[in-house]
Amino acid sequence: MKINVGTRGSRLALTQTNSVVERIQKAAPDLIADITVIKTSGDIMQDVSLAQIGGQGVFVKEIEEALLSGGIDLAVHSMKDVPGETPEGLMFAAILPREDMRDVLVSRGNVKMESMPRGARIGTGSLRRGAQIKAWMPDLEIIPLRGNIDTRLNKIETENLTGVVLAAAGMKRLGYVQQITQFLPIELMLPAVGQGALGLQIRKTDTELLKFLAKLNHAQTAMEVSAERSYLRALGGGCRLPIAAYGLIEKQRLTLEGLLAAPNGSSVIRDKVWGELGEAEELGRKLADMILEKGGRKLLDLM
User: Fold this and answer.
1) Which domains occur in the chain, in start order?
2) Rounded Cα distance, 156 and 192, in Å
3) Residues 6+ apart with CB under 8 A from 127
4) Which of 48, 54, 91, 273 is 20 to 30 A (C-alpha) from 159?
């Protein structure tokens, strides 16, 4: 079988996709995979914020369209980029083992977040990160930032930033661990839905491909991400407010923690639920209801 694998063109996306192709060919040596680079809206429109161009989904829409049209047979996505709703006709054949789900700080002079001076300029393109930083340290200034990891790291110098906040997973996959100043604890910086996980998306009709790819599915990660995505969908999925969630299986119990915040960090609503391993979808909806009751609905009504 020969398949065409679609991905974004950044160095990180290609690194991730090449690692996926290696996994596929180990599991199915007779399967030949070619890689097709697809430019997404998020890659093309670098001069405006993600919220302005549609928020979540801007890095996957064109790739999903290519999958539906038959231009590619398999899409490799960073799950944190994927909206809560999957288009009709598509499915995730596998979720791969999760890399580190935390966010990290890379700063000038290796200054940690809690030691930042008043007015320090922290770069991030994420509403979620910005809101949690402002809630934690209101005196810091959030500088909107777009671009790939190398571009954002370079902007510490070119934009005179004190530091930037990035996903640990991307830094590790590119071999940039030595540049990390601080891994931010999830108690202070709850990750994005699906952060650190890669998803393999196919057409529902491709049953033969599903058989190959299902061997790569990591059940624990898939269950944790399923709970997080259920929470995202229950809040509306495309919401332009900062949303975060983190599912974790320990001792045969699934814990799900979620957050909804005002973009300026003035209001942060956070809660946690526990349940059985088979209750991922239900836990996501239950947590969303709790967050909405605690003031989340009021926040949503303001948007």
Assistant:
1) 1-96+197-217 (3.40.190.10), 103-184 (3.40.190.10), 218-303 (3.30.160.40)
2) 23
3) 50, 51, 240, 241, 242, 263
4) 54
Give catalytic residue positions: 81
pLDDT in tens, 16-28: 999 999 999 888 8
Amino acid at residue number 91: M
Q: What is the pLDDT averaged over residues 49-67?
A: 76
3-state helix vs strand vs coil in the chain, percent to 5: 40, 25, 35
Whole-number Cα distances in Å, 97 to 33, 200, 202, 267: 21, 12, 18, 33
Structure tokens at 14: 């290609």
List pLDDT tens digits, range 256-273: 999 999 999 999 999 999
- Residue pLDDT, tens place only, 140-151: 999 999 888 999
CA distance 295 to 275: 23
Task: Take residue 5 and report the two structure tokens written for it.
Answer: 């694998």
For residue 3 the two structure tokens come to 């398949």
Evaluate whether 201 touches 93 at the Cβ level (below 8 Å): yes
CA distance 54 to 80: 15
Q: What percent of the chain has pLDDT over 90?
A: 82
Q: Per-residue DSSP letters for 133-147? A: HHHH-TTSEEEE--S
